[in-house]
Design goal:
OB fold (Dihydrolipoamide Acetyltransferase, E2P), 3 domains, 5-stranded mixed barrel, 3 helices, 12 strands, about 30% helix
């Protein structure tokens, strides 16, 4: 009875076969051309004549030797291959588990260091593109440099301080009341507009946002310029935090961006009194 033979892929071989000097069975067959896959040519090569230059149009790729195995030999080969694959898979899974554990440890350490800041900043993500971008990338990469953490904390603190100032602001005085106020300029803005009595001319309108000692917001619109505000072509408006005294008439009370504001008009700067020099005789 002839021993049944198989290819390495488990296909039974029913044709003729030969044996090597060591008695190992094999057979030969014609391979398909590796370039055209046995088609002999392709439309994509039409500009050079369609025919595959590797096989000359035959679709053949030479002769190959195919080893044959008995059922027992094939079973042993498959068992060895399966064992090798299982070992390789186990090594892959162990490496993946180690990498995950390392990544989890880094993430845990990262959150222990920066989690509170990120949670605090995330509340303002829709109000600042900078905060939104830094928080997103930090969470994706579990990475935040010292400079980024410092800048993020400063941005958050600025918004928190602004929100606290808005919440603390209340109306000042009564409409029509003339008041003397000690204030600090916090923001300046200016724009060009048509002059009130001569619309063919333009004038500069300034908006000075100030706060008094109690944190109430005072807004002056018109020509008034605080003494602590300066403007240059290069940097625009710049303000300093020194307090100054003004006299102004309350024009109205309004809410702007969730902040109570007192609008004033006819603003005049009160110059500090100079001490009289003492003379001897």
């Amino acid at each position: 009875m002839m021993t049944e033979l198989f290819t390495r892929h488990g296909t039974a071989h029913t044709g003729r076969h030969a044996t090597t000097e060591k008695g190992r069975p094999y057979f030969t067959q014609t391979k398909c051309c590796s370039r055209c896959g046995g088609a002999g040519g392709a439309d994509k090569w039409a500009h050079t004549g369609w025919t595959c230059f590797q096989c000359g149009g035959s679709g053949k790729g030479g002769i190959e030797t195919v080893k044959l195995y008995t059922a027992d030999q094939l079973a042993k080969l498959n068992a060895t291959a399966a064992k090798k694959q299982a070992k390789k898979q186990a090594a892959f899974e162990a490496k993946a588990a180690a990498e995950k554990a390392e990544a989890d440890a880094r993430a845990e350490a990262f959150l222990a260091q920066h989690g509170a800041l990120l949670d605090r900043a995330e509340k303002f993500a829709e109000r600042s593109e900078f905060i939104k971008d830094v928080v997103r990338k930090a969470r994706e990469r579990n990475l935040l440099t010292d400079a980024q953490a410092e800048a993020l904390a400063a941005s958050v603190a600025k918004i928190e301080a602004s929100d606290a100032a808005k919440a603390a602001s209340d109306y000042v005085g009564k409409v029509g009341e003339r008041m003397t106020l000690t204030v600090t300029c916090v923001r300046m803005y200016s724009f060009a507009r048509s002059a009130f009595n001569a619309p063919w001319l333009t004038e500069t309108c300034r908006i000075a946002t100030m706060r008094d000692a109690n944190g109430n917001t005072i807004v002056a619109k018109g020509k008034f310029c605080p003494p602590t505000a300066t403007w240059t072509e290069e940097s625009g408006w710049q303000v300093t935090s020194e307090p100054f005294v003004i006299k102004a008439t309350v024009k109205g009370h309004e809410v702007y961006r969730d902040e109570k504001q007192t609008t004033v008009q006819r603003v005049a700067l009160v110059e500090p009194k100079k001490e009289k020099e003492q003379s001897n005789g």
